[in-house]
Amino acid sequence: METLGLCTDLYELTMAQSYLEHGKTSTAVFSLFVRELPENRNFLVSCGLEALIDYLERFKFSDEDLLYLKSLGRFSESFLDYLKEFEFKGKLYAVPEGRIVFQNEPLVQIEAPLPDAQLLETIVINTIHLQTLIASKAVRSFLVARGKGLVDFGFRRAHGLDAGIWGARASYIAGFSGTSNLEAGKRFGIPVFGTVAHSYIMVFDREEDAFKAFAESFPKNAVVLIDTYDTLSAVDKVIKLVKEGVPIVGVRLDSGDIEKLSKEVRRRLDQEGMSNVRIIVSGGVDEYKIESWLSKGCPIDSFGVGTKFITSADAPYLDMAYKLVEYEGKPKVKKSPGKRTFPYKRDVRRFYKNGLMDHDEVVPYNDPENGGEGLVKLFLKGGSLKEKLPSLGEIRDKLMEDIDKLPEELKLLKKKDYRVIIK
Amino acid sequence: METLGLCTDLYELTMAQSYLEHGKTSTAVFSLFVRELPENRNFLVSCGLEALIDYLERFKFSDEDLLYLKSLGRFSESFLDYLKEFEFKGKLYAVPEGRIVFQNEPLVQIEAPLPDAQLLETIVINTIHLQTLIASKAVRSFLVARGKGLVDFGFRRAHGLDAGIWGARASYIAGFSGTSNLEAGKRFGIPVFGTVAHSYIMVFDREEDAFKAFAESFPKNAVVLIDTYDTLSAVDKVIKLVKEGVPIVGVRLDSGDIEKLSKEVRRRLDQEGMSNVRIIVSGGVDEYKIESWLSKGCPIDSFGVGTKFITSADAPYLDMAYKLVEYEGKPKVKKSPGKRTFPYKRDVRRFYKNGLMDHDEVVPYNDPENGGEGLVKLFLKGGSLKEKLPSLGEIRDKLMEDIDKLPEELKLLKKKDYRVIIK
Question: Tell me, what's the ipTM?
């Protein structure tokens, strides 16, 4: 898609037309936030802003788009003219990527004429929701991995190519070492990793022939997969080959009783003085398994983390909304049961105690009384970039700093609430 | 992305290079299937083939892609030359879109020289997985909706733009009436629907002014949202406006006690002779809620179904794999615990009893002994289309035919297994 104007819901356009017809074109502020964190999340990692800024630039309507809209028979000529000229010229306030955030905190706020700000609802939610969801899931593996390597193996079961590519970026921000996803590697400069699949082992008549052939092709970094037939006989074959000088640097386990197998594989390798041969585990890996294996002393060097993180399987969506909070300078509040909103453009101010996060206050933006560290920044004004976007490495570093300041109990997989005060 | 060659995992390329180096270039067959259905699914709906065929045509490597790969320092010049020339020239066998399928049934089979077939693993799984996942979730709402309207409201919380667009298509195949997603509406000709958001109601000083303004803008199909402040006072305002001749055709409930509210809203409307004003319900809707509301007699005319279906929230992934089953005409079997595969290219043969599906047999392809209805067709040969792709309407009709032949107990939300015999 060259233009993204149709990446929206029909009602955004019907509302916009009606706003224009009724003179409702004053400045509005919409706020994107998560109402409540999922049961299995103690915090979120803000992610997706760079993509959103790119998408907003491309949020325009081509002639073909306009022809389609005209064919629906609902829109006036003057509204179609408005869309033809549309480009986002408003302000975008946001929490930068890679910050730890919580419930009710405005991740993105759009300030623009009401119809313009309304049109963007769907694409703002879609973009920030996906990437924040995946980063917030991925960081949980990072927090329990005790420094072991983590590689994104999720591309195949991501919800589309999009989700795989952005998910790789989100996981790198969240502390993964790299990804198997080449498009993400190219686009974002993320390190890429890979081993071999069962198919490779199976096309050779003997398992050891496959191991040897792969090491011949990649003598610097051959990791072989040892669970195709029988894991323990396979590791014995690896040992024999390494003794013969075949340069195998690692073995991957993808099924079976990982606790038992990883310990026995390590024992056999060590017994032969092959303590430099690494053990990589994949197959249904998530933070719960990583924590369980490592707490049982499994000698695993790195993990391939796939399906469960890339789909955020234990919490596959966030209760994220984009709500009108201010119009013509006046507060706007929705009172629907369980869906209450808070008025005004806001900042998130963070208060620390002994170097650790103590609580956040969600307060009116730019109030001189505000204390603490302000998280919300103005990124776009008149549609143009006002704040330099950080590099991927800087975003990742920022998250690591935030993690250092996160109270220990929030780093655990057990539920713990953080105090967010709305003023 | 103009070329999709990098939409793959690194290991597909390392394996391919090694295959080429070791003369492993004979014909291979890979099979895409779901090992086990999720706990909450009695069947799946095949979906995604049209996108896959398009993606395979675009699965090539641009000069920029090749430069990136070269920069990784792992690939040989001759392998990069192979990629430069790569285009898919093999065979693709598949179950057409819109068919009901089960565990262990090959949805897609790729027959091509081993390195070529290997390269496609990630994109084949990614594409068919997403769309089959969403179609299989969406059809559950259709099966319990008793003919009530269903509209896809999922775009905003889909995992990316991709997932929202393909998800809209999948839900239309699965019996939804339409979508709020304009890009999907344009691209696939799916009917589009929409109402208004809370923001619209909130920018007017009085709720009734908002209702009136919207009906003025869209006098043919104004559906207004009535839960922004107080649902029952809002419906009284709607009644007053309709009496005054304001053309409101429906009201939408998005929160609160839907059973109580829908019944009371209906009662108040009917009492005033407004039985033609429809009630639409949205907000956390899924098949479980639809079934529960309708079985309690809630007078709901249609549902906006969003987040939970577009993320397939109760089963956000399928245990789908792409496995080597044949190489050089010889069977290939993987024996990893819980991940056993079955050899040879296969057909799915369906047997009916009294007009209903009785069982399926997964059998060697083209075996003259095969009985029943064959589901697998040859779609691509030499990389070119051999079987005309059906229109979206035809795919949807085909699924409706399959649903008519599905045993009643498989249509329920309760778990029931269907018999699939592997021969």
Answer: 0.97
